Amino acid sequence: QVQLVESGGGLVQPGGSLRLSCSASGTDFSMYGMGWYRQAPGKQRERVASISSGGTTNYVDSVKGRFTISRDGAKNTVYLQMNSLQPEDTAVYYCNRVVGNYAWGKGTLVTVSS
User: Fold this and answer.
1) Residue 88 in 3-state DSSP?
2) How far, in Å, CA of 113 to CA of 28, rounded?
3) Residue 90: which residues within 8 A CB-CB, separation 6 or more?
4) 55-97 residue pLDDT tens
5) CA 55, CA 44: separation in Å to the nearest integer?
6) Beta strand pairing status for 34-39 and 46-51?
7) Which of 103, 111, 110 is nearest to 5 (CA)?
8) Is residue 26 packed enough to be buried (19+ CB in 10 Å), middle (13-18) or exposed (0-12)?
9) Within 10 Å of residue 10's Cβ, how many Cβ atoms?
């Protein structure tokens, strides 16, 4: 059974940075496109960044230039470096495949507030 575990969230002031990590057990996701998603209170989950198996990245406009997605195949881990965080980035962040989702993990809460 595949289990996704997200970590690295927390409380940060506007303009601050966080690095999220996503590890997986029960699967080798190096052959799949992976994404970071977020769900803010009262809003639908949205994908903010994705990375293909070959390393091609894509971002939603609201995070371009501030967030960077990367992956380490040897560690079976996907990362999201988030810089210049703003209050509107506050959400629970999840990782998952881009196509054919695994069961969702618990996510990691990012709160941007002064």
Assistant:
1) helix
2) 36
3) 40, 110, 111, 112, 113
4) 999 999 999 999 999 999 889 999 999 999 999 999 999 999 9
5) 27
6) antiparallel
7) 103
8) exposed
9) 13
